[in-house]
Amino acid sequence: MWKTIGIVAMLLPVGMFAASGKSAAERSAKDEQHLAREIQEAVSKDHSLTPSGRKANVTVQNGVFTLSGVVHSEAERQAIQAKAESKIIQKTPDELVASSAVKVDNELAIAQ
Fold first, then answer.
1. Is residue 106 part of a domain?
2. Over its length of 112 residues, how does the chain's per-residue pLDDT go in tens digits?
3. Which among 86, 55, 84 is positioned nearest to 71, based on CA atoms?
4. Residue 16 falls within a domain, yes or no?
5. Does residue 1 sit within a domain?
6. How many domains does the chain fold into?
């Protein structure tokens, strides 16, 4: 009885992934897009940022999260990057964070 339950428990997750019809790369890209949206939402709701800072764009491709837009200061630029890095660390498996497979590219420009 216990052996059967153990086998079923081990096979269930594999069966769930197989049924989705998506490769690991497709699931990973979808997860990255979801995380980019979460970061974008967190930035847009942060009222400590200026209105232009809250409009910062977040895109992702191959594990590189790119921040773009215009902010009013270096401090705001760094605050947005810190928010993005914090979300990524919370949602990314430890082995990917440690291997630098996930990165933030801060292209936020400071208004003159």
1. yes
2. 443 333 333 333 333 333 445 555 665 888 889 999 999 999 999 999 999 999 999 999 988 999 999 999 999 999 999 999 999 888 776 655 555 567 899 999 999 8
3. 55
4. no
5. no
6. 1
Residue 79: strand, helix, or coil:
helix
DSSP secondary structure string for all residues of 27-59: HHHHHHHHHHHHHHHHHHT-TTS-HHHHT-EEE
Torsion angle defined by CA atoms of residues 51, 92, 32 and 39, in that order, rounded to the nearest 10 degrees: -10
What is the torsional sign of CA 21, 93, 40, 64? negative
Domain that holds residue 102: 23-110
CB 69 within 8 A of CB 58: no
Residue 85 placed within a domain: yes
Q: What is the CATH classification number for the domain harbouring 81? A: 3.30.300
Predicted TM-score (pTM) above 0.90 = no
HSE-CB of 102 using CA atoms within 13 angstroms: 24
